Amino acid sequence: MTFQEINDKIVSLAAQKGGQGVSFKFAFPTGIIVVTGEGQVTNENLDTDCTIATSEETFTAILNGELNSMMAVMTGKVKISGDMTVAMKLTNLI
Asked: What is the pTM of this model?
């Protein structure tokens, strides 16, 4: 998926599932996607509870079920900063 396709997918998921009560930042080489605690999605570089840094390819593999997210973190393909318990709430969104 391209950055724009990932952005559109996250917008769709956030609209369906609503806010998670915490904010996430997805940092890709080509851009940033922020999901606020209320479920709003923006490309502004806002402060968030948790930041997930990865490539578009890795994120696509996780979304498609081709790569386990925990394995991606353990192998360094995904880096998480901030509140780790917040990162666990991502399973509710994705």
From this structure: 0.88
Encode pLDDT of 28-39 as tens digits: 999 999 999 888
Query: How far is the C-alpha of 38 from the C-alpha of 64, rounded, in Å?
Result: 25
The CATH T-level fold of domain 3-83 is Nonspecific Lipid-transfer Protein; Chain A (3.30.1050)
Q: Is 56 helix (H, G, I), strand (E, B) or coil?
A: helix
Gap between the Cα atoms of 37 and 50, Å rounded: 11
- For the chain, the structural domain boundaries read 3-83
Rounded Cα–Cα distance for residues 49 and 90 (Å): 12
pLDDT digits (tens, 9 = 90+) for 34-93: 999 888 999 999 999 999 999 999 999 999 999 998 899 999 999 999 988 888 777 767
* Residues 6+ away with beta carbon under 8 Å from 8: none
